[in-house]
Amino acid sequence: MKPNPRGLAAVTGLLLLAVAVLTGCGKDAAAEDAPAEKATITVTDPWAKAAEKGMSAIFGSLVNHSTTDLAVVSATAEISPLELHEVVEQDGEMIMRPKEGGFAVAAGATHVLEPGGDHIMLMDLAAPLGPGDEIAVTLTLSDGSTVAFTAVVKDFSGADESYEPGMDHS
């Protein structure tokens, strides 16, 4: 008996279709075990101090969701050049200065940015910041990744620190 070419083609086609369907049903073990992609650092409760001109600051909490220690090494925004600052005691006086090495955030930990402590300084405002305004900020981390967040501007009248001698904050 001679094989029917049409029947052979139909069987071959069905076999190929079955292989394709079954391949799609299989589970990729690596994909199944991989956690959902999540930002390594997030910023919670971000806010900025209202200011008519000059300088202001951004506060909030940096939360490291990863299993690796990271640091925020820089920040950018369209409204102003930004610097990472700290407030330290020097000769009995609280002064503000750039934070060497950025803000370290240990794996699974939170680093608070607050008035009178570490903060992101807006150095030369391009426009006034009024209550309710929003500032789009991008942080660069020590691993090269970036994190974007929006800080809401609000009135705040505390934490009037002095600047480190010799720093140009004009």
UniProtKB/TrEMBL annotation:
Domain of life of the organism encoding this protein: Bacteria
Keywords: Signal
Keyword Repeat among record annotations: no
Record-linked PROSITE patterns: PROKAR_LIPOPROTEIN
Signal peptide positions on this chain: 1-30
Protein's UniProt keywords contain Signal: yes
Protein name, entry field: Copper chaperone PCu(A)C
Organism encoding this protein: Phytomonospora endophytica
